From TrEMBL:
Lineage, opening ranks: Bacteria, Pseudomonadati, Bacteroidota, Bacteroidia, Bacteroidales
Top-level lineage group: Bacteria
Keyword terms of this UniProt record: Membrane, Transmembrane, Transmembrane helix
Membrane spanning stretches: 6-21, 26-47, 59-79, 100-117, 152-172, 179-197, 203-219, 231-251, 334-352, 364-381, 387-407
Protein name: Oligosaccharide repeat unit polymerase
Organism for this UniProt entry: Parabacteroides faecis
Amino acid sequence: MIYVIVNALLYIFLLLFYMFSREKNILGVILIALYTIVAIFAIPRYYLSIELLHDVDDITLEPFIYLFIVFIMFVRYFVKVDIRNLTNIYAKGRWKKMYFLIYVYILSTVVVFYLSINDVISNIYSGEWGDIKKASSELDVAFNYHFFLEQILVVFNSQSTIFMSVICFFMLTNNKSKSLLYILLFCMFFSISLLSLKGGGRGVFVIFFISIITPYLLFKKNLPYKTIKLINKILFSSIFIATVYFFTVTVSRFGDFDTSYNIYETYNGLTSLLSYMGQSFLFWNVGVYPISEYGYGIYGCEFLYGNDAFMNFTLGTRWITKFYTFVGSIYVDVGPYITFFIALIVFVYSFILLNIKRYNIEDVCFFTYVYVKLFIGVFSWADNYVIDYIICFIIYLFLKIKISICVKK
């Protein structure tokens, strides 16, 4: 127990130190506060393990220290960047490409609706979210595609939400096509809802709201008062709907847990939430840090190895499908030395980035994408996260490179 408490104190002291520093921003406060809260929740989660689950009883200090150092190296830029520089955006030559992406996203939402609506209606009618989640994780594909273009559009829809959110708020600050942008906001919420209801998952909603709130906080000071008021209403309404869905799914999935797993004999929705909030640091400690062999891409690029390749991979220690932080997601593929080297490169590069006084719109999009990844990384990164980064980098290059997408008359 003492090591779990020490780990929580490290993040508490980091948060206090950051709060009293001059170089801070709201996004940095939120990010460090989140990791601090999860570190604190690891204490009752550890107690839950001792009393009931018996799954994290051999905690050591070294993994916590390693994780803390690597975490600081990864997030340095995001907690020190001046928000005013991030909103000092250069977008010349990119407006037509941004409109093009918006129209493609709206089209992709139509495709997502067409491919998922039957399953969504069936899932809502059944209400068996636990079985739905289990079934969705066992499918080779999430959709029954009829054409390759449909698959491209669905992938674009799921991977471009953060970019589209930044573009939307940036264009709102410039009073550009407000009606179109409100349609875009609706499409983002609608498509995320469809994806969540189709798979019975909850994490997609969390990612969506962070994807919306992050650029909202970035651009809020530059938005008209009426626009802020309208967006607040949309956000609060969406959060209410998502909260109802979140707890409904939680109760359905964990309120009457499968007793074939005897360690969960008194497991329920409340202990499920506690377990989710506090498990990532603990399973990083006992389930990932001690591994003796590494995947070398089998997790981050599982798509290239085949479905369930990672689940069939032996890591050399106890492995349960749990959260283990974004550091753990990298670590399982490349081990301690390369993970630390990657963190060191990010740390050194942050000194260069912090000298930038004006950003291109694609830079802010990519900043937001990585920030959201670090935010959800307090739990873990999903498999194929390297593929996700590559897809978003392609969108980044599309905005970056000077090309013409219009036919000249």
